[in-house]
Write a structure and sequence with these properties.
heterodimer; A: Rossmann fold; Alpha-Beta Plaits; 2 domains; 36% helix; B: mainly alpha; two-stranded antiparallel ribbon
Chain lengths: 327, 257
């Protein structure tokens, strides 16, 4: 059996001020996987990834990258790793091309090999025209793409993307998704993604881990996770305004405004039945859409359960929703 | 990493560092040249003509080695301190930390880059000095050894300073409050023979005195102190600071949480 791209056992991190950021987490990411690591701010995502990338010192535990223990041979493990951090971490005064070629040099890559690879990445990511300009002149989205190009220059087998599309407009985000899908599917690069855009995780990732307060509270496939979704809420746009909430037996209906209703559908319910009842009451629906991303809805449902010991607290949930709304 | 990869990564580090100070040459190369020109005009030409000779050598010629050394010291130190701290500040130090480059390559890259600027400025100051005096080098190898070793030593010092620094102010404290006084009191402008016995003894604990005098010996053939001892002391300091800086890097001091 192939070694996991990333294997974490009993990973613990206690900061100098006594804060326990990670409480002995275990995590496996299979080779070729597109894996989402989700959690509210301060949950331990960045600490986990920071340890994997050697930016944070672990307190205890074991981390293996393609079977290589970072305590035994971190240098060899790092060859397999490409990192796109959350914040811009390149010299703003360097030229775009120099930033990527310098990174190639850090990996001992000869220039004659690095230059064509750099050209291809810059072209793929739409930065070729900007190659001779200083990085500070790039837009936010371009800077994110620059960091992706830089992370890929040495052909890593495991790519870590820490909120790669934060602050990126919708069109660019979609093109970045396409690119990430391509390197995952065509080049077989394993990818670990952290994001606040739950739609992004649902669209891209096959497996998911949810971390909260330094513990992994869920580790499963996205498909499996979504089957846990009890209720989905749809927003229905109406042809004519309604004054009162129509009664729909077996469903919960909420009045949003005169021309919009929210219909909550429990797992196993027949949606046709809801439409039939609405039709009988003279309510004509012209369009419908999910009120929230399904994954987000799952977060809400998970955390609304009483004593959801392994769930996400309401403040954390709020932070996720706010981010999602802001997108 | 194999030897070839190590050499490529070290070369990359050095090129990056040299490119940085060359890119901002109006801040890195020009000011020291102008400052030293002022020293040559004011201390060497105007005041120096009234001072007369020092150890049988014109005052202008006497201060040239000290001023070159002063340029090398301050520029080597401030280049690494400022460059590495900027890397910390902009977080681009993470580019190096996530790569498989060993820490000694990172350290060597910054140190060689800093020494390159120190020696570059030293060369510019030397060329400027030729407008004011004739310069014949008595012991070329000694001159080269002392100036290169001094540049390396202060580059490593700048690196340690930048590792410990938490804000930009922290990288200017040592140059202003430690290096400048020690350099001025290190026999750049005078021979310690001019000092009373007590102050001569005090001067002997100033490490920069040894560097300035060893360098002066290389160029003019005169020195206030035993030159062999100076070379050994500089080499010992280089080793001590190198291993201190490497230990700090290995333990993530100032860069890892």
């Amino acid at each position: 059996m192939a070694e996991p791209a990333l294997s974490i056992r009993g990973l613990t991190k206690v900061y100098g001020n006594g804060f326990e950021a990670l409480k002995g987490i275990d995590l496996d990411v299979a080779q070729g996987d597109f894996f989402a690591l989700l959690g509210p701010n301060g949950a331990g995502k960045s600490t986990t990834l920071g340890i994997v990338c050697s930016l944070v010192q672990k307190t205890a535990g074991q981390v293996k990258i393609f079977g290589i223990d970072i305590d035994q041979d971190f240098a060899r493990a790092k060859y397999h790793l490409g990192v796109v951090p959350q914040e811009f971490n390149f010299s703003q005064f360097e030229k775009v091309e120099d930033i990527i070629l310098t990174q190639a040099g850090y990996y001992g890559m000869p220039m004659k090999e690095a230059k064509p690879r750099c050209e291809r990445l810059l072209k793929d990511l739409g930065l070729w025209d900007k190659r001779s300009g200083a990085a500070r002149m790039l837009s936010g989205g371009m800077k994110r793409r620059l960091m992706i190009a830089r992370a890929l220059i040495h052909r890593p087998r495991l790519l870590i993307l820490d909120e790669p599309t934060a602050g990126v407009d919708i069109e660019l985000r979609r093109s970045m998704w396409e690119y990430m899908r391509r390197i995952n599917q065509e080049e077989g690069t394993s990818i670990i993604l952290t994001t606040h855009y739950l739609e992004e995780a649902e669209s891209l990732c096959r497996n998911i881990a949810i971390i909260n307060r330094g513990e992994i509270v869920k580790n499963t496939s996205i498909r499996e996770l979504l089957t846990e979704l009890d209720t989905e809420t749809f927003l229905l746009d109406l042809a004519e305004p309604v004054d009162a909430v129509p009664q729909v037996e077996g469903f919960e209906v909420e009045h949003i405004d005169a021309r919009q209703l929210a219909l909550s559908v429990r797992k196993g319910s027949d949606l046709n039945d809801a439409f039939r009842q609405l039709s009988e009451r003279g309510v004509r629906v012209v369009s419908m859409r999910n009120r929230a991303n399904r994954l987000e809805e799952l977060f809400v449902s998970m955390t609304s359960q009483p004593n959801a010991a392994k769930g996400i607290d309401s403040a954390s949930r709020e932070s996720i929703q706010v981010k999602e709304t802001a997108s | 990493m194999n030897t070839r990869q190590l050499l490529i990564s070290l070369w990359t580090m050095v090129v990056k560092e040299v490119r940085r100070f060359v890119r901002i040459w109006p801040q890195t190369l020009v000011p020291p040249s102008i400052t030293m020109t002022m020293y040559f005009i004011i201390f060497g030409n105007l005041i120096g003509s009234r001072v007369g000779e020092m150890h049988g050598i014109s005052y202008m010629s006497y201060i040239v080695p000290g001023l070159i050394m002063m340029s090398v010291i301050t520029n080597s130190y401030s280049n690494v301190a400022s460059s590495f701290f900027s890397n910390k500040f902009q977080r681009s130090v993470e580019e190096m930390m996530v790569s498989p480059m060993p820490n000694w390559v990172i350290l060597a890259g910054f140190v060689i880059g800093g020494a390159a600027r120190g020696l570059g400025v030293g060369l510019i100051v030397t060329l400027v000095s030729l407008f004011f005096t004739d310069l014949s080098i008595h012991h070329p190898l000694m001159t080269l050894a002392v100036v290169v070793m001094t540049a390396l030593l202060f580059s490593i010092g700048g690196f340690v300073n930048a590792l410990l620094a938490k804000k930009f102010d922290d990288i200017s404290i040592v140059p202003i409050f430690v290096l400048t006084p020690l350099t001025y009191l290190g026999g750049v402008f005078y021979s310690i023979d001019l000092l009373p016995d007590f102050w001569q003894s005090v001067s002997m604990v100033n490490p920069i005195l040894y560097m300035v005098n060893a360098f002066r010996y290389g160029i003019l053939g005169i020195s206030d102190i035993p030159v062999a001892g100076a070379l050994i002391a500089i080499a010992a300091f280089i080793l001590a600071f190198w291993f201190l800086a490497l230990w700090m890097l290995n333990h993530g001091k100032g860069i890892r949480t």
